Amino acid sequence: MQESSWPENNARSELNLDIPDLALEEDKSSRSNSNRGKVFTMPPGGDREFEIATEAELPVAVSVLGSPSFPQNLYRGRRGKAAVVLSAIWGGTIALHLVSWGAWVVWGLTGLLWMHAFRVIFASPKPELTPLSDQNREDWPYVSLLVAAKNEEAVIARLVKSICNLDYPIDRYELWAIDDNSTDSTPSILEQLTKQYPQLKVFRRGANASGGKSGALNQVLPLTRGEFVAVFDADATVTPDLLRRVLPVFDRAQVGAVQVRKAIANAPLNFWTRSQAAEMALDSFFQQQRTAIGGIGELRGNGQFMRRTALERCGGWNEETITDDLDLTVRLHLDRWDIEFLPFPAVSEEGVTNARALWHQRNRWAEGGYQRYLDYWQLIVRNRMGTAKTWDLFGFWVTQYILPTAALPDCLMSIVLRRMPIASPLTLMTVTLSVVGMFVGLRRTRNETTKFEVKIVFATLLETIQATVYMFHWLLVGMVTARISVRPKRLKWVKTVHRGTD
To answer: String of b and e for 34-49 (b: at least 16 CB within 10 Å)?
Structure first.
């Protein structure tokens, strides 16, 4: 999920899906004398120029709020909707304790979810596709790679060098670095890098620019030319063969997006980073298994690729959410696109290194993840995704959000009535799935599945148990649902600080 985030304001723009001619837009910007933002480009056959883009001449930002399929009223009333859901979960949990058949309801739901879980666990992952061949390099598609950066001096150069050294023709892809009014040396670093890499273009946003990361991506999207659009965090590192391996996944016309597996670059540092590495392996396992049975594939912000037509049809990035990747995930599926997952190669990123940073990050993730259910519930229950995806989404909603939210009243009632928590079967199922998924996911990401060595298996098992304890931090989700119910909508993000790793 998104790592590079910053406060946003409430200003909004209208939908405009007309993608302008890049050369025309650059010609317009060169005649302007405003300081709204700087675009650094390499004109054909000429020296590098520093051009100025005006507020008036810039393309209007794409905004999900104008999409006919996702009207603005979907994003209203989150506080009230959260209060209703919280009351229903807490009241329902208490009621199940008080009626004689309450336990049977829980066991019945658990049985249904276990049936789905067995399908997920035992599904055969989709086979690895053959990378793009050198024989038809002239036919490779044009790709636009985007990174939004705010005060990323510690990591931005590494990202740019990593992407600009891809094993892909430099005239077939572009990297747009969006400097969102950085106050450190990020602008000067990017300016120097433009002299070295012709595929690098830099857009500088003004101090009053709106929309946070989503706004930055929306503002630059009309300037891009790619048939496919990718988003990276500023601390990302990629392998040279990334594009050659990702693009064949789009050969199936219904694929609207592809998420590349994320890996933690600083995993050996401490308990927190090692646990996040295991968490990414868990996510990788379930992404592979869910997509294998026609379930939900999810975007994770860093290393996500979108088909341009799918992105435009969904209205771009939503500026009314704090987790644009999770929001776009739901909109793509509601629009009947598939999201695939690519386990190899991985895109690396920094893990947070302490409990405080983890708390802020996961609060943001939890709140943003919960927002998508509040926003799109009417469309979800109408089965716009299709039965397989709707049921898959429901199962993970129960385990990720309902179960943690119900934990408080369930524990209180179990103490009062001197009995086991009524949600124990669901809790046991969730923990079991987490352990299995994490263990298998770790072995897959390390290519340990073809051999069995007792020492390695035992070490992986111990790592799994340790990370499972770490995963109980997800109980904070219950606190998030309660907070949303009583506090006004929050669109302020706490920026994840990137320090750079060797």
So the answer is: eebbbbbbbeeeeeee
Q: SS3 for 438?
A: helix
C-beta neighbour count of 331 within 10 angstroms:
27
Output Rg (C-alpha) for the chain, integer angstroms. Answer: 23
Cα–Cα distance list, 103 to 100, 367, 414, 423, 432 (Å): 7, 30, 12, 8, 20
**pLDDT, tens digit, for every residue of 8-50?**
433 333 333 333 343 344 334 333 333 334 454 433 333 333 3
Mark 98-129 as b/e (b = at least 16 C-beta within 10 Å). eeeebbeebeebbeebbebbebbbebeeeeee
d(CA 314, CA 321): 15
The C-alpha atoms of residue 198 and residue 170 are separated, in whole angstroms, by 8
| Lookup result for tokens 């016309």 | 253
Structure tokens that stand for 18 in this block: 């007309």
HSE-CB at 229 with a 13 A cutoff on CA atoms is: 22
Which two tokens mark 216?
A: 């930055």
Beta strands in 233-332, from DSSP E residues, in sequence order = 255-264, 304-307
The span from the CA of 142 to the CA of 162, in Å, is 18
Q: CB–CB of 296/339 below 8 Å?
A: yes
Note whether 200 and 164 are within 8 A (CB): yes
Residue 215: pLDDT over 50:
yes
